[in-house]
Amino acid sequence: MKVMYEDIEVGEVITNRSLTVEEALELIGFDEEKFIQENGFDDIDYNDFRMEY
């Protein structure tokens, strides 16, 4: 599955079970500060993350 923030692909996870967004972000080693800096955001809203299967 792809982990998306708005239209930005954050990473991909291969799994055989359902995951929460938080679990998926942990599995891909999501670095919030690095993501904010790389994409020019002031902050991020975790409600804007989604997973595409």
What report would you give on this structure?
- The protein is of the alpha+beta class and 53 residues long.
- Helix content is 28%, strand content 25%.
- It contains two helices and three strands.
- The protein has helices at residues 21-27, 32-39; strands at 2-5, 8-12, 49-52.
- It has a three-stranded antiparallel β-sheet with strand order 2-1-3, with helices on one face.
- Strand 1 (2-5) and strand 2 (8-12) form a beta hairpin.
- The longest helix has 8 residues, at 32-39.
- It is elongated.
- It starts with a strand and ends with a strand.
- The model has no long low-confidence stretch (mean pLDDT 96).
List the SSEs and their pairings.
Elements: E1 2-5, E2 8-12, H1 21-27, H2 32-39, E3 49-52
Antiparallel strand pairs: 1-2, 1-3
